[in-house]
Design brief:
The structure is a homodimer. By secondary structure, chain A is mainly alpha-helical. Chain A has a domain at 5-86 and 127-133: Arc Repressor Mutant, subunit A, CATH 1.10.10.10. Chain A has 6 helices and 2 strands. In chain A, strands 1-2 form a two-stranded antiparallel ribbon. In chain A, helix 1 crosses helix 3 (39-51). The first copy, chain A, is elongated. In chain A, 31% of the residues are buried. Chain A binds chain B through residues 1-3, 8, 11-12, 15, 76, 86, 88-91, 94, 104-115, 117-119, 122-123, 126, 131-132, 134-135, 139, 141, 143, and chain B through 1-3, 8, 11-12, 15, 76, 86, 88-91, 94, 104-115, 117-119, 122-123, 126, 131-132, 134-135, 139, 141, 143. Chain A binds a DNA duplex through residues 1, 4-6, 25, 27-29, 38, 40-41, 43-44, 46-47, 50, 57-65, 85.
DNA sequence: ATTAATTCCTACCTTTCCGCTAGGGTTATA
DNA sequence: TATAACCCTAGCGGAAAGGTAGGAATTAAT
């Protein structure tokens, strides 16, 4: 498994905020209820999004969160990179992994690099706006 | 991380056998030494390959393993599917996963299905023979 | 001033999987 | 008869996933 619940939940938050996009801020409580995620757990996920300036937040009464930019400005990849430890398909490509001593002679390294590239490119090719459209437009998309 | 050591070791076994391809059978011991993998651990991995009839085996003196077909006949995907529990990028796509109650309305399911497809297609597009060429031909491949 | 909300921190817990290690018995073949 | 594959079981240490729990500080609308 490549994508953890953290990443999936982060995407659901983004979609939720995109669908309820108004001038108002959306409270964590509301998102948690709609998405059926514990408030406490969601808090830790949303904090990452705020820190990365993906979301704007407002404290106090009437506070909450909103997207800083329109949904089409956020790729799925950009969100997942914030919440996932790593999206590398194998350990040796993870950030901070010790450079493998055998890398120069490795028969499989190019394979993993290629796989990594394919995954990145796909995740960068889809935006939050794309996710909104799918699933509402009559479910007639084909994968 | 998507690919475990089991899968990576399986590929290294396939490459090793492809590179030492003769009429003779190659012993587990030899593979283990060259690849620096414990014999016991390797045994469990190779057993999967034999069971799936990817490898031919011979017992007794002079025994060991060899590829049944030429290296270009095996895709990386076909090998990984044997050793990996699952190559699904998210839990809900794993075989045997309970069908998600929200699947029909899920905003992200198509995303994961698309990602899954991209991964599968890539892994099916590379063969063991491809892995052999890379890394020997002067390291001038570009990813 | 009060209330409602985010923010920030720490600590802990359970479960699952990974990557092995260890041991020993059985069977086939040169 | 030595040598190899075959087959099974058991366990284990570490890491990560997926949370839960609780509290304290800050901010803003009313």
């Amino acid at each position: 498994m490549l994508i953890s619940t953290k990443g999936r939940y982060a995407l659901r938050v983004m979609i939720d905020l995109a669908e309820h996009r108004t001038e108002d801020f959306i409270s964590l409580k509301g998102i948690a209820q709609r998405q059926e995620i514990s408030e406490k757990y969601l808090e830790s996920i949303i904090r990452m999004l705020v820190k990365a300036r993906v979301l704007e937040s407002l404290r106090g009464k009437g506070g909450g969160y909103k997207l800083r930019k329109p949904p089409e400005a956020y790729t799925v990849g950009s969100i997942l990179y914030l919440t996932e430890e790593s999206l590398a398909p194998v350990a040796c490509l993870e950030e901070g992994a010790d450079a493998c001593a055998k890398a120069a002679k490795c028969r499989t390294l190019p394979l993993w690099q290629g796989l990594d590239k394919v995954i990145r490119e796909y995740l960068e090719s889809v935006t939050i706006a794309d996710l909104m459209e799918r699933g509402t437009a009559g479910d007639d998309y084909v994968i």
